[in-house]
Amino acid sequence: MAHIILKNVVVDFPIANASSHSLQLRVFQSLGGKLTSHRKTVVVRALDGVDLALGDGDRLGIIGHNGSGKTTLLRVLAGVYSPVQGSATIEGSISSFTDLTLGMDPESTGWENIIFRCAFMGLSFHEAKRLSPAIAEFSELGEYLNLPTRTYSAGMYLRLAFAISTSTQPEILIMDEMISTGDAQFIEKAKRRLREVVGKANILVIASHTMEVIQRICNKVVWLERGTIKQIGSTERVVHAYESFYGVATANQTGPNGVRPLSDDAAASMAFDAYNQQAL
Amino acid sequence: MNNETILPSSAIQGEGLATSVKSAVIAGFKELLGGIRHWRISHLIGVRDLRHRYARSKLGQLWLMLSTGVMIGVLSAVWSLLWHQPIHELMPFIGVSLIIWNYLSNVLIDCTSIFIIQGHLYRNQKMNFSVLIFSVIYRNAIMLAHSLVVIAVLIVAFDVTVNWYLLQVVPALGLTWIGMIWLGYLIAMICVRFRDIIQVITTWMTVLFYITPVMWKPEFLPRQYDSIIEFNPFAQFLEILRNPLLGQPVSSHAWLSTTFIVFGGGVIALAVIGRYQRRIIFWI
Description:
The structure holds two protein chains of two kinds. Chain A is an alpha/beta fold. Chain A contains ten helices and nine strands. In chain A, the strands form two sheets. Chain A has a six-stranded mixed beta sheet with strand order 5-6-7-3-8-9, with helices on both faces. In chain A, helix 5 (125-139) crosses helix 6. Chain B is an all-alpha fold. Chain B has helices at residues 17-37, 39-54, 62-83, 87-117, 130-157, 169-193, 196-211, 227-230, 233-245, 252-276, 280-283; one strand spanning 3-6. The interface between A and B is large, with 42 and 34 residues. Strand 4 of chain A pairs antiparallel with strand 1 of chain B, so a sheet runs across the interface.
């Protein structure tokens, strides 16, 4: 049993520039200097009045332009950000695939990193040791696991991160874009593993720019626009509304040269590039 | 695993001050307890930091002992010459005091930047911030443990009396650790919000180093300035930790004042922590 209930969630980001962080300005303000014109801290409202209820079996897709609040919403669901107004109830073990390398350390060996990453995922050392052989086998890194991970290529580092992150089954799974990693042969294996983990999760939440991914996986879609829910409902209806609103060709149409707009693999490699950058 | 409703901290307001303070204290306490539940992460971060510092160095952690040893030797030699003090009395005093002081001050100074340095760990996953405070205290405790060898050498070399007072080091350490948890958290939280405070605290630790009897004995101080020690919490903590190691009794003033600070200040700190802990992620 897992469920997520958001009621009228509002998230504000204080603008953390030098002036608001600095004590100097505070002192000047209290002295009544000229700078008092900006007495209040400037905030950006990232989410504004978001209501959401998810239960077992729900597969939620989050769509919207850059800066519409997708990542912020994912982080509220992961419990990272707490709302300044409204409430967020999240019940169930959460795994966030938004940073697969979280907790890993380039100076330590592959084996040590398995323990590190597992500890960050909330496993005990005993459980981590028990899972280690299976993780090692899946990552196909063999002898390399005895070396510090800074000697790995970006692809190898990610393969390890992926193998560890997907080694346990969460109740609630949170993803920012579809993830995939490795060379052609590993990608197939990774896809199978991911499908399994995604399939078994009670609740899945994924933010994506790729409508194909959303259409394939999700049964519910939220369309965010400037931090508010513009539309929520069945995948078909919301994706259709989104695409006709922006005048985008529907997913199954072919592009100018008979090339399909964005395949799953293209999205995968995009996500992969993003992780490469993070890893480096 | 997770089972809670996350309410904004502002929701606590408006129910009367007493209830809101009480719920803030409870929230703060839960935050610290939550960090203990993640002890594995504190342990891993603490050990990893230490290993990074001494990675690819031949003597490794031995440097911890060597550097403190050299420092103590030189300081005591110069001081005993300058002040015409017998070195066999001054050296154990300065040695033990300096090691304890370094522990106290390193923990607090490390706390000023820990949320900023390790903040990236919190962007994608929910975790208690107290985990980082525990990792700082833990890492420095490991370093302190290395210095115990130096203390043992000093005790043996200068024939310092070892007696039952030594056992008082246990409650003294306990008090110090409890105090460090909330003070470290408070400092880390304030520093991540107001970055200037990092410099303020670093500067203040230097000042405190000189007005706390670390390099000079309390009896060197002219009587009329005794309040410098009596009202200096660091001097009190130094006393409860140092005197047992040197085979000397701890004054009741030191025990009472440190206990009062740790528990009285602790309740206030818990309220502040409970009130603002959910905002930390937005300040990083």
